């Protein structure tokens, strides 16, 4: 299938090119020329996650991957479950944090890594990315051990939790990590400078594993199908399903809208944000007016200019989906009281999922609400323990890396130094 640039419509590329390139001209996002409606959704729902995902993804990758290649990629990428957990009569959570780095970003990062390895075809490339936590871990684990791919991850020294740091700095092999004396913004600026340096980019085959990459979004479509499949297995009469998506850059919501456009029976979506409420204000007033980003306890959603919003807007304006998105902002106090409320229902939640659960509050009686559990509560151990007033156990993935040695090198926020390092 062809993908076109939402800003410069005449730029059209293959799936492989869109994955390798990331962004189009003028920073435009790639979008599929067609989102095929599937006519066999009931049949698909009866399949396993891996088997079904091959069917869901096949039309998008046609021309670049054979069915067998796609099946191999999906099998390697989705080697952990997405799991529906009932919370109450009308509410369930879709747990997306059973992958190697305990966050939903594992789905997209692993699928992207497998695709990229296929498309670069033995040619050496360097993935350069800056992280303030979750993305770095997902990218590091997804690419770890893949031949001919060197991964360099920059992060602000001393500004992320030790456990977070250990999740991506202890792997070694093709994963190199650099602790920058500076802020997350300094790290991002260094990445941008590297991409702007065409000679450097060419020399080391520079690529980003950015969250706007179309492969990451397409992978995420698959777990909406899995959620509905599990819900229908529990109750075949179930209708009027509402998904509440804790949203930062709105990639997760975009994937949900793709699933609906393909014919998955979803009634509507609630895009739940924290105090960074550009989208709920936009839907209420029609005015796009980002404010300065504020820090919250659901920090993976501390985004005031969400980079996937143009895709959502396009789908709504072009009628690819009907008017099915509302958006609600949840403040810090509500987030913490919701964590306590969920704990009373027997469920330990971290702040992002709590924001999404709270945002389901206005569902109608006949609607069944599913909120997305985007991270394991242990990834936000400090705030979960202090809010709930009880200790929580570390899952194996975190306990294992806690004792490992950090392999990072230290560097000043200085481009010349980074450039020399990358060329060595
Ligand atoms: C990245 C992230 C989000 C936000 O997802 P988007 O696709 O950027 O909207 C929500 N929760 C957690 C835990 C995350 O890591």
Automatic annotation (TrEMBL):
The cofactors it requires, by name, are: pyridoxal 5'-phosphate
Instruction: Name the catalysed reactions.
Output: O-phospho-L-homoserine + H2O = L-threonine + phosphate
**Which pathway does it operate in?**
Amino-acid biosynthesis; L-threonine biosynthesis; L-threonine from L-aspartate: step 5/5
Q: What is the lineage of its organism?
A: Bacteria, Pseudomonadati, Pseudomonadota, Gammaproteobacteria, Alteromonadales
Protein known as: Threonine synthase
Q: Which family does it belong to?
A: Belongs to the threonine synthase family.
Q: Which InterPro entries does the UniProt entry name for this protein?
A: Ser/Thr_deHydtase_PyrdxlP-BS (IPR000634), Thr_synth_N (IPR029144), Thr_synth_N_sf (IPR037158), Thr_synthase-like (IPR004450), Threonine_Synthase (IPR051166), TrpB-like_PALP (IPR001926), TrpB-like_PALP_sf (IPR036052)
Task: Give start-end of the signal peptide.
Answer: none
């Amino acid at each position: 299938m062809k993908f076109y640039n939402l800003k410069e419509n005449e730029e059209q590329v293959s799936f492989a090119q869109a994955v390798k390139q990331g962004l189009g001209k003028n920073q435009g996002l790639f979008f599929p020329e067609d989102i095929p409606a599937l006519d066999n959704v009931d049949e698909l729902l009866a399949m396993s996650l891996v088997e079904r995902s091959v069917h869901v993804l096949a039309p998008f990758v046609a021309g670049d991957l054979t069915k067998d290649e796609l099946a191999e990629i999906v099998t390697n990428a989705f080697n952990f479950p997405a799991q529906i957990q009932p919370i109450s009569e009308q509410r369930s959570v879709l747990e997306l944090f059973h992958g190697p780095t305990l966050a939903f970003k594992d789905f997209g990062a692993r699928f992207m890594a497998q695709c990229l390895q296929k498309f670069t075809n033995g040619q050496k490339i360097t993935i350069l990315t800056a992280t303030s936590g979750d993305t770095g871990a997902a990218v590091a684990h997804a690419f770890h051990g893949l031949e001919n791919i060197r991964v360099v991850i920059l992060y602000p020294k001393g500004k992320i939790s030790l456990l977070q740091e250990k999740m991506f700095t202890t792997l070694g092999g093709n994963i190199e990590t650099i602790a920058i004396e500076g802020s997350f913004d300094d790290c991002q600026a260094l990445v941008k400078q590297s991409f702007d340096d065409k000679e450097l980019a060419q020399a080391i085959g520079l690529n980003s594993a950015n969250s706007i990459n179309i492969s990451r979004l397409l992978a995420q479509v698959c777990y909406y199908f899995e959620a509905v499949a599990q819900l229908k297995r529990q109750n075949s009469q179930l209708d009027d399903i509402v998904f509440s998506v804790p949203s930062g850059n709105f990639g997760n919501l975009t994937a949900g809208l793709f699933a609906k456009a393909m014919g998955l029976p979803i009634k509507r979506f609630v895009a739940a944000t924290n105090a960074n409420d550009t989208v709920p204000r936009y839907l209420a007033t029609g005015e796009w007016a980002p404010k300065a980003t504020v820090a919250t306890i659901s920090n993976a959603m501390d985004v005031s200019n969400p980079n996937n919003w143009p895709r959502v807007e396009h789908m709504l304006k072009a009628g690819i989906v009907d008017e099915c998105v509302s958006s609600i902002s949840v403040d810090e106090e509500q987030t913490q009281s919701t964590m306590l409320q969920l704990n009373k229902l027997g469920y330990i939640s971290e702040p992002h999922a709590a924001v999404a659960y709270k945002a389901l509050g206005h569902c109608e009686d006949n609607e069944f609400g599913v909120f997305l559990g985007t991270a394991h509560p242990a990834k936000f151990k400090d705030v979960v323990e202090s809010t709930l007033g009880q200790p929580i156990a570390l899952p194996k993935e975190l306990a294992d890396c806690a004792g490992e040695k950090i392999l990072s090198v230290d560097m000043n926020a200085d481009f010349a130094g980074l450039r020399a390092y990358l060329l060595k």
